[in-house]
Amino acid sequence: MAAPPHGLGPQATALSLMLAVIASSNTPLLLLDGDLHVIAASASFCHDFQIEPASVPRSRFSGLGRGEWAAPQLSSLLESTASGAGVAAYEFDLIRDGQAPRHLVINAQKLDYVDKEQVRLLLAIADVTEARASQKLQDSLLREKAILLQEVQHRIANSLQIIASILLQSARRVQSDETRGHPHDAHSRLMSIAAVQKHLASTERAEVELRTYLVQLCKSLAASMILDPELLSIEAIVDESVTDADISVSLGLIVTELVINALKHAFPGHGAGKIVVRYESHGSGWALSVSDNGIGMPSDAQSSKPGLGTNIVEALAKRLDAEVEITDAHPGTSISIVHPHLAAAGPARSL
Amino acid sequence: MLASESAPTGGAVILVVEDNHLILMSALDLVATAGYEGIAAANADEAIAILETRADVKLVFTDIEMPGTIDGVKLAHYIRNRWPPIHLIVASGKQIKEESHLPAGARFFSKPYNNNSIVAEIAHMLASPPPPRH
Fold first, then answer.
1. Does domain A9-127 have CATH number 3.30.450.20?
2. Which CATH class is domain A133-349?
3. Is the Cα dihedral A61, A65, A71, A74 positive or negative?
């Protein structure tokens, strides 16, 4: 492949070494003279671009192969390189009859060596066709994934809307206040899960900032459950904690149950009052509490028998390795879900 | 069931545009319960056809993603240009839609929306002057 050294005399060894280096390069390489004639080509160049090695020496660069290298832009690139301007990463589409185009990146450099008279250009040619295609595929997969995710979130939101609509419709059809409460409660539970869903859909992260979420949730609970906002209000006081989505769903459901419970029992006969939802974390420990300033807990065991809400709260607390603590708050009741500070990592951590 | 049957007479006319039948029924029920007369369209083309024949529609409550030639966002802009006084509420399960994509004065709610918030917004809009011309 190497051009036969001719008339070099004592420099023959050095030249032969240089030609051997070029010939053996794994990266396709070409050595050109100042008139853009090929002095040497690497075996990898001949192999990758299907060029007969014997045809290479002293042929013009533009005459290589069947003329596929004869692009005018490429010639002017090499001419400007020969006159001193180095060209890095020139992109070129190699078009050959009956073959798919190859996308090449060409680095051309004028060699700086002792003989200032003789111009020598070194061309390194990288075939990035596959790399670009795989990058393109990866990009399009990522885009597709984002679109699918959006589509899924859209469908979830629509399904939740359908369920929410049906629940409220059944609530309106039911005559008694007692039974009307059930679909209303179910609706509130649903909206509490939907709030996490909305929150997740609006961010790239799979984590939930508890303050944003719980404030939004309390607003939504107040909007759907409080008839007279002048009389009753819900406030959320939450620190900077962020949690994983599934943990925030549990916390949100606990808040929903406890708020429903307080609204049902703490303020009979349209009494005025306030419900405060609090979340604080200390290391791996955290405490969630819902307090009201209502009438306090019933003293008789009969009316305090656990309902669905209590069972849900206990089950969720157990899942979070937390204890349920009920305290008489004078006035009102405070229910806390406490996860003790342990050496092991807890579900919540501070930002 | 037609929502308009149960609506008190004299309530403002609200056009609900929604391709999902269950959500449409429920939204009609929602506006009827709040004391308005709800009329239904299953897509934007139907909505425009209705608006061309009825001059008494005061507010359009529309979904975004619907089959047909245009979606709810385009419908909102179309209505704002052709019938400027009509108030607009847009709801969608997609989170990306911001009110900035909508005509001035239109309100966006993400699904699932809170019925009370929708009713409150309808009441607020109907009590306000017609939306500003964009």
1. yes
2. alpha beta
3. negative
